[in-house]
Amino acid sequence: MSARTRRAQRIGILGGTFNPIHIGHLRSAEEIRERHRLDQILFIPSATPPHKRGNGLAAAAHRLAMVKLAIAGNPAFRPSTIEIRRRGRSYSVDTLRLLRARMPDAEFAFIMGIDAFREISTWKDYATIFGLCNVIVTSRPPIEKTALRAALPVAVRRQFWYRSPTFELVHHTGNRIIFERITALDISASSIRRRLSRSASIRYLVPPAVERYIARHGLYAGRAAAR
Fold this sequence. Notes:
The protein is α/β, with parallel strands linked by helices and 227 residues long. The protein is 34% helix and 19% strand. It is built from nine helices and eight strands. The mean pLDDT is 90.
């Protein structure tokens, strides 16, 4: 196959604090990878998340190590240090711009949960994100079609049109916002940290290698869980 006809690489981008990474992160990523035929998903731990307090946040080196352990068995999952190396506040738009510059021919899909999407208007240069990549919004309960446009910030609604029956919004650049229902796993990093703070078991909530790493380094023990 010639370079001219070769399909562009499809790359998912899953960022977050991963404090710690857990089974919910992994299952969600795998479902999206399979559904959208992504070649790989980059797991990108943030250096300093702009929307979360630092209380209870493990050091970036620990969070990166746990990500590497958690995804080691999946060749389509890759860790990325792009935000940790950049340091400072970890803004998604800056990460996307840098990835786009490094891999101009790739097709990127930015993966985020519905709660984060509803707050996207508070993100730095959020409107620019829609022109840089597709956005896949995950939720556990189904999203009503009538709520799709309402979930968009008012300032950008005119930049999109609804495509039926594919359950997505199309940006004027051709990029899409795709809403996907994922398996309902009631697991959160904050609940895991609360369990660890009172020495409760986290078995089956995180991969065994992550559980061992947390125990070995005494992470989150006796700490209040930051939300």
